[in-house]
Write a structure and sequence with these properties.
Blueprint lengths: L10 E7 L3 H9 L1 H7 L3 E4 L6 E5 L5 E10 L3 E6 L12 E10 L2 E9 L4 H22 L17
Antiparallel strand pairs: 1-7, 2-3, 3-4, 4-5, 5-6, 6-7
Helix pairs in contact: 1-2
């Protein structure tokens, strides 16, 4: 019999970006830079307890609070979706670590607290999509229009 995954299982992803940690840090705390790679609007108050709210489209609005900020190195925020969704705002946690790697930075993402395997699979797909966009934007490129902004369903 297959073992049921536990809610403590994490989504763990990484991407190498041709930029410094100092450059990439801004993409997690500055609303204008955030929307270059994720979301069409962002309300960010980067301090512990401050608002993290990113509107992908009319149906998909991620909301939580910043938990920990270590400049140019680490950002942690809670995560969930506004509206009727199994992952409610603040019910899961996203940790981002920025590690220098030569002329690049390894961006390591760990998302915990997702309620089931379906949500982990859906969020893995979403984070892969957005990390690829971050890699382009963080390196100074244009990732182009985000198909999620056109109303793609949220996870």
């Amino acid at each position: 019999m297959a073992q049921t995954p536990q809610a403590t299982e994490a989504v763990e992803l990484e991407v190498r970006v041709a930029a410094t940690p100092e450059t990439l840090w801004e993409f997690f705390i500055d609303p204008e830079k955030m929307t270059r790679w994720k979301g069409r609007r962002a309300e960010l108050d980067p301090r512990p307890g401050g608002t993290y709210r990113v509107e992908l489209n009319d149906q998909a609005i991620a909301r939580g609070e910043y938990v920990e900020l270590v400049p140019h190195s680490r950002v942690v925020f809670t995560w969930g979706w506004e509206g009727d969704h199994p992952v409610q705002p603040g019910s899961s946690t996203v940790e981002i670590n920025l590690e220098p790697d030569g002329d690049s930075t390894l961006v390591r993402l760990r998302h915990t607290g997702l309620p089931d395997e379906h949500q982990r699979v859906e969020h893995t797909g979403g984070w892969n999509h957005f990390l690829a966009r971050l890699a382009t934007a963080g390196a100074g490129g244009d990732p182009g229009p985000d198909p999620f902004a056109e109303g793609a369903p949220k996870a």
